Amino acid sequence: MKPRLEVVAVDCLMVRLFDEIAEANMPWMLAASERLRAVFAEDLIDLVPSYTTLMVHYDLLALTPAQARDLVGEALNNLSPDAQAAGQCHVLPVWYDPRVGPELDLLASRSGLTVAQVIRRHSEREYQVFALGFAPGFAFMGLVDEELAAPRLGTPRKRVAAGSVGIAERQTAAYPVVSPGGWNLIGRTPAKLFDRERDGYSLMQPGDTVRFAPVDHGEFIALGGDDTPLEAQA
User: Fold this and answer.
1) pTM of the shown model
2) Mean pLDDT of all residues belonging to the chain
3) Domains of the chain
4) Angle, nearest 10°, between helix axes 65-76 and 26-40?
5) Residue whose C-alpha is closest to residue 186's, from 91, 117, 89, 88
């Protein structure tokens, strides 16, 4: 790890810890987040973690840019991941079906796998939540099996149903709310991923892990899932 500091704005610094996305980064990212929150204390306005970076937004009325850089250096000095630190593990039920996952058959055909094999490979892994973004509660997770990796759609959909589970490159995610989107959809979860009444709003946070658990149609409906086909929701 070779940390670099980049200026994003007059009151914002980007701490770049890594150059490549990897699951092994997360313990270091969590440790750096904890240290940065501690050293900046009440002078920290926001801290936004991503795959390889941490954006530090600080109070310019309380700190000069030079003082902010010094605090970042203090936070990263002798940094080491906490072996005991771990996020929450979430198990999300998913109904994998072409009616709600129109790219399920396409991914199977492209990879030379059967639909059942695509479902098994997607659901047998435990995914790391790297970052939140795009929409409230949208968690970018990875890394999916290389054979399931697929580029985003050439033309994004204008409307993707809440709960839709998709793949883009080697990332996977579930749409927390109805929104446009260009990911390859393979199923749908009934889980409530974004809730204004929840502390932090999002079900998942960076550092958490996620497993997708296949369920049949009946169980999906019993859990409160909406099985309206994607085309009917447009």
Assistant:
1) 0.81
2) 91
3) 4-76 (3.30.1360.40), 89-233 (2.40.100.10)
4) 130
5) 117
